[in-house]
Design goal:
Isopropylmalate Dehydrogenase; globular; alpha/beta; 13 helices; 330 residues; 2 domains; twelve-stranded mixed β-sheet
């Protein structure tokens, strides 16, 4: 399999540190080879390990065992941890673009994106809401067809609605939207995780999943019809299920993924159960893209205390999913 492409993220954040620490753990974590898209300076600012600038992906694969390979994509002579700059944001943008291009070309097997600062990116002309939308557009996928999944060792969740106010959720939530998110999720579980018959849990929106219309009508009138249609289409799905009990250990193991109606309903379980190993994966793309489920953490950058667990998990998941896709090809 080709190496993974790792975009360095904001060079002033914890990305360079967790990437370097992941390389240090390459043997114990069983990591596939990867190449960092970015620059040497951010890595050398936080790490004294071996860094090898390379001119190609093939060269990166050859030197991975002895040094962390970096394919330069921009000119950044220095980086100060915790002090983001426009030059740093420009590097993050260039690294992301290069990682996507290499993976679409087949030179790299998948993309793992380190955290970026949306505010800093906007200052250098980045117009996408986040990295997900950029990767989707470059891959020829409509933004609404790129679905976010949060995954850890204990649970996988998919938020049906994401970055909108809670009061707007009932207005945005539709049967068609739930169906679209669910089918993208189910197909990805088959293609990327090798689960032949994915089992989906669909949460309710209201307390106790609405109690048949006594606590809100959305569960009965919007969510239940989506579950019925999923079953009619041949998918294994249950719901609407009360979210306050769904994530109990003896219940969550019955399902391969949980579709949740709003952002916190999906993210709280993952961050409570798998905080240090949470992975953000974009479903519905022609390429595999994962990311550690944490931000730039400028406040701790350069202090040597950033944990690499989520980056390691993102690298492991990207490699497994890319291998699953490759094995399924005729």
């Amino acid at each position: 399999m080709q190496p993974l492409a790792v975009s360095i993220g904001d060079p002033a954040g914890v990305g360079p540190e967790v990437i370097a620490k992941a390389w240090e753990a390459r043997h114990s974590a069983g990591l596939s080879p990867f190449v960092v898209l970015g620059a040497e300076a951010p890595l050398r600012a936080v790490w004294d390990g071996p860094v090898a600038p390379v001119a190609s992906v093939a060269e990166a694969a050859d030197c991975f065992e002895s040094a962390l390979p970096v394919l330069p994509v921009g000119a950044l002579a220095e980086a100060t941890p915790g002090a983001p700059t426009r030059d740093g944001a420009a590097l993050a943008f260039a690294a992301l673009e290069a990682a996507v291009a290499l993976t679409l070309e087949g030179q790299t097997a998948a993309i793992v994106t380190a955290p970026v600062s949306k505010a800093e990116l906007k200052a250098v002309g980045y117009t996408w809401p986040g990295q997900t939308e950029f990767v989707a557009e470059r891959s020829g996928v409509a933004p609404e067809d790129a679905v976010m999944m949060l995954a850890g060792p204990s649970v996988r969740t998919v938020p049906v609605t994401i970055h909108i106010p809670v009061r707007a959720v009932p207005e945005v939530l539709t049967t068609d939207l739930i169906l679209q998110r669910a089918e993208v999720t189910a197909r990805a579980l088959r293609q990327d995780f090798g689960i032949a018959e994915p089992r989906l849990a669909i949460t309710g929106l209201n307390p106790h999943a609405g109690e048949d219309g006594h606590i809100g009508l959305e569960d009965r009138d919007v969510i239940a019809p989506a579950v019925a249609e999923l079953r009619r289409r041949g998918w294994t799905a249950e719901g609407p299920l009360s979210a306050d009990t769904l994530f109990a250990p003896h219940i969550r193991t019955r399902y391969d993924a949980m579709l949740c109606m709003y952002h916190d309903q999906a993210l709280i379980p993952v961050k409570a159960l798998d905080f240090d190993q949470g992975v953000n994966m974009t479903l519905g793309l022609p390429i595999v893209r994962t990311s550690p489920d944490h931000g730039t953490a400028f406040n701790i950058a350069g202090r040597g205390i950033a944990r690499p667990d989520a980056m390691i998990a993102a690298l492991q998941m990207a490699a497994r999913c890319a291998a699953s896709r490759k094995a399924a090809r005729p």
